[in-house]
Amino acid sequence: MPECRPVLILGGGINGASIARELALNHVPVVLVDKADIGSGATAYSSRLIHGGVRYLEYGDFQLVKESLAERTRLLQNAPDFVKPLRLHIPVVSRWGGTWQTMRRMAGMDRPDRPTRARGLRLVQAGLWCYDAFARDRSLPRHTTQRREESGVPHLNTLYRWVCAYTDAQMVAPERFVVALLQDAEHFAMAHGERFDVLTYHDATLQDQSVTLRDRSGNTTCELKPELIINASGAWVDQTLQQLSVTAPRLIGGTKGSHFVSHHPKLIAALDGRGIYAEAQDGRPVFMLPFGDAALVGTTDVRFEQPPQHATASEEELEYLIAAANQVFPDLNLNREAVAHHYAGIRPLPFSRAKRTAAVSRRHTLHPHACAELPMVSVIGGKLTTCRSLAEETVAQVLPQIDRQVAANSRDREIPERAPDWKRAVDAPARLQEIIQTEWVQTIEDLVERRLLLLNDPNLSRQTLRKLAEALVHAGRLGDRDVETAVARCQQRLLQHFGKTLVDSD
Ligand SMILES: Cc1cc2nc3c(=O)[nH]c(=O)nc-3n(C[C@H](O)[C@H](O)[C@H](O)COP(=O)(O)OP(=O)(O)OC[C@H]3O[C@@H](n4cnc5c(N)ncnc54)[C@H](O)[C@@H]3O)c2cc1C
Q1: Pairing mode, if any, of strands 7-10 and 220-224?
Q2: d(CA 65, CA 126)
Q3: Has residue 219 got a pLDDT over 60?
């Protein structure tokens, strides 16, 4: 019997990985290719919330909120190693602020790109009431309203009169979740004798229905004739189409969002495991979230026209976020020194001429390419939260194109963390080798930034980088003589890209 031709997925972010898993569950052979590391795009640079998106209610996007809340419930049930409930607190100044404007907007009488004025208690309560009603998950506590003094949140600005609290969820490590999705798919495919290949740091080119995959040195490692191509390259969707010589209108209008991570003890104590969802001066939402032993503050929303991999948080964005945090907690007097490191990602939003980036829909869509040499579809938009439903929709749309039917879905399938002790792997040679061998690791950066999340470790040292480089040599991923170069390159990237210094740097 001739071998079934695989579906080729370009992009191993949370969406590409979810689609790969959904296809594998339907017994479709898969080759997933990422031009860098898996999970190295927007997936690693988000706010890490698994949420319905209270804010989307203002734009009347009820369908997106319902879908996201249903997926939140599924993730809490199916991926408890990754997704945990998080109580969020919204401090409020006025009683009626923004209510009239929101009512006019929902009736189509106000421009959606006009910023909302400081949201008052009635508006926030109405939003949270809808949120609770849309969430079918009765196991999570409903929203509450308290006077600031009784809310239990210390150091809040006395400007605030009330605090509304509601429950959402958090995925602290989407980087590891991507690995888990791919491992689950790989195990399923192997158990059924089906093809499931993941190739990182590879570029794909297309000619006469044939795809050539080349590694970083330009060597051809694979030629294949896929049945179908799924372009799940996030903010790179347009560049990927160019690379494949596929003509299409501009599909992505990415916006940059930056965060900073802080180990400031007073900020961590003020949060005490809870999240704060406040407004910056310009009405944009700002989150202050617990993040392991640290705190995560974000985000901004600015148009970005450069290649997504060049996105870094600007000083201006960091000042904006520090000012927003100080407005909520003036006693803390946070300054630039509170920033341990920062990161920035590009939201893969649909291209839109809307003046205000916050008004661009966060819904996902699929764009089929009639002109491509092969059946092909590009994935536009999406959130961490809706990765599974996006994958289910994508598979339902593409399988008929290759004469297949949907036979299974991932709605009730668990996603286990297969290396629950990954935090200690740096000191356990056997575990570290296993992670390198089974989690598609190629470089020190893969380990530091995404597999072991050492980027968040305030005690990260050059010595640790060297240890990781030596483990890569042992695994055959790095040449003996390249250790020092690789360590220096990683140290430089940590500084330039994330503003992070090592404890033993000169
Ligand atoms: C600042 C910010 C905050 C966010 N906060 C949240 C949040 O709190 N909750 C939430 O649900 N969502 C959030 N999101 C949205 C969410 O992070 C993204 O929508 C999601 O991660 C997109 O995943 P993706 O797989 O489509 O893209 P990505 O994660 O960007 O992955 C794309 C992959 O494609 C690869 N690639 C690029 N070009 C090619 C090519 N030619 N060939 C092969 N591979 C290629 C890249 O290397 C990358 O690995 C946020 C996003 C940002 C930027």
Answers
A1: unpaired
A2: 14
A3: yes
DSSP annotation string for 378-409: EEE---STTHHHHHHHHHHHHGGGGT------
Q: Which atom of ligand 1 is nearest to the CA of 244?
A: 41
Residue nearest to atom 2 of ligand 1 (CA): 46
- Structure-token match 């100080």, residue found: 326
Q: Is the pTM of this model over 0.70?
A: yes
Section 398-412 average pLDDT: 96
Best probe residue, ligand 1, of 32, 46, 55 (max atoms within 8 Å of C-beta): 46
Nearest CA among 437, 440, 450 for reference residue 490: 450
pLDDT at residue 1 in the model: 43
Mean pLDDT, rounded, for 25-48: 98
Query: How many CA atoms are closer than 13 Å to the CA of 467, on its beta-carbon side?
Result: 14
Quote the ligand 1 centre to 299 CA distance (angstroms). Answer: 15
pLDDT digits (tens, 9 = 90+) for 300-322: 999 999 999 999 999 999 999 99
Number of neighbouring beta carbons within 10 Å of residue 304: 20
Read off the tokens for 202. Answer: 């590879």
Q: What angle do CA 223, 224, 226 make, to 5 degrees?
A: 155
Residue 470 to residue 355: CA distance in whole angstroms: 50
Task: For ligand 1, say whether the CB of 230 is within 6 Å of any of its atoms.
Answer: no
Residue showing tokens 């409903």: 142
| Residue 18, ligand 1, Cβ within 6 A | no
Q: In this predicted structure, what is the pLDDT of residue 106?
A: 67
**Cα of 429 to ligand 1 centre, how many Å?**
31
User: Would you say the CB of residue 29 lies under 6 angstroms from ligand 1?
Assistant: no
pLDDT digit string (tens) for 327-357? Answer: 999 999 999 999 999 999 999 999 877 666 6
- Of 43, 72, 88, 310, best ligand 1 pocket probe by most atoms within 8 Å of the beta carbon: 43
- Which tokens belong to 108? 């189509």
Please work out whether the CB of residue 499 comes within 6 Å of at least one atom of ligand 1.
no
Distance (Å, whole) CA 356 – CA 359: 6
